[in-house]
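Handoff note, outgoing to incoming analyst
You'll be picking up this chain. Sequence as last confirmed:
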Amino acid sequence: MRILITNNTLDARAGTELYVRDLALALNDKEHSIACYSPKLGAVAEELVKAGIEVVSDPCALTYTPDLIHAHHYIATAPALFAYPQTPAVFICHGFLPWPETPLIAFRQIRRYIAVDGASRERLMTDLGLEEGEIQIIQNGVDTHRFYPKSPLATNTARCQRALVFSNQVQDTSIGVLRTACENNDISLDVCGGAVNDPVSTPEAILGDYGLVFAKGRAAMEAMACGALVILADYGRWGGAVSASNFDALHVKNFGLRAITRELDVTAITDEIAKLNWSEGEVLAGLVKERATLEQMTTKLLALYEDVLAEDNLTTGAVDNEAASFFHALSPLLYERDAYATRLYEETKMRLGNEATSAALLVEAMVNLDNAGNTELARRLAQQVLFLQPGHPIAESMLKDT
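Most recent structure output, in case you need it:
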């Protein structure tokens, strides 16, 4: 089977990028011909090329016509569909929030819609007007040949004293709350991921060093596969610890957005950590291996692909009309992003102007103090700086000292 997988980027090691990488490698191992298309290539694309998988930034540059398109994200889906108008497709929605997660219109080539959880299924229903029964849920899977337990938590005291925030979206305020809660339990906390400019290319090499991991979604599953306990947390919220008793209920939610609904609270998280049962690490790893593997996910997708290819061939259809409908749906989003960029530019220009003015006022105040000792004028100038930039440390210090 010749399969083209699309994604908005194949650059940073993030959610769908790594999903594409793992799926492409798994399908390639099963001797299917796999190619990947994205308008933006980078580190993940290089990894795929090294594995012998064709990667293009222009769908028309493929060396063959695909039998099927496995599509993600409208900015990568539409070009691929227009390039191969008689190739059927399946489309997967991975999230309720990210901006490119629906295809904007119901393309005639998309024979199946797939969601990774209830939230992403709801997005497809809302954005495309689909019925619940028209959307199949196929949850993410972990490559348990890469992610597996190396030492049981119950017998590794040092590991139980280390925790990790494993996220690309973590915020500074969240880190502070989680660190305090860990310290209250005599546990040290490390942080990795794109948000702190510390992406990890081989997380399987480090997850086994931690007894507790704060994560969501795929990252949470990978941590559990390595035998760590997981407290679901991200986007400035948290959802409690995963246990053997709630694993299935949280798995249905893909350990994702709808499982992290609580406001961060130091006391509550401190108590949650104190109640952890370290012996459950092995149990959770076993549950992932039993119910949430990459092999299981790939098998389900291949069965879906085969069902699609067994259906009647696509007719040529009114591609021009479909292209017009797509760009008509895309236009408001472009205007919205343009307005946002304009607003950001104006705010940045004003901030830079305020910084320049503040610097000039502070220099004037300091020169005046040194030469004339006029504290009243220096105070007025410092107050002007605080009007332009509230909390400016030099202006506040000047007011205090004069």
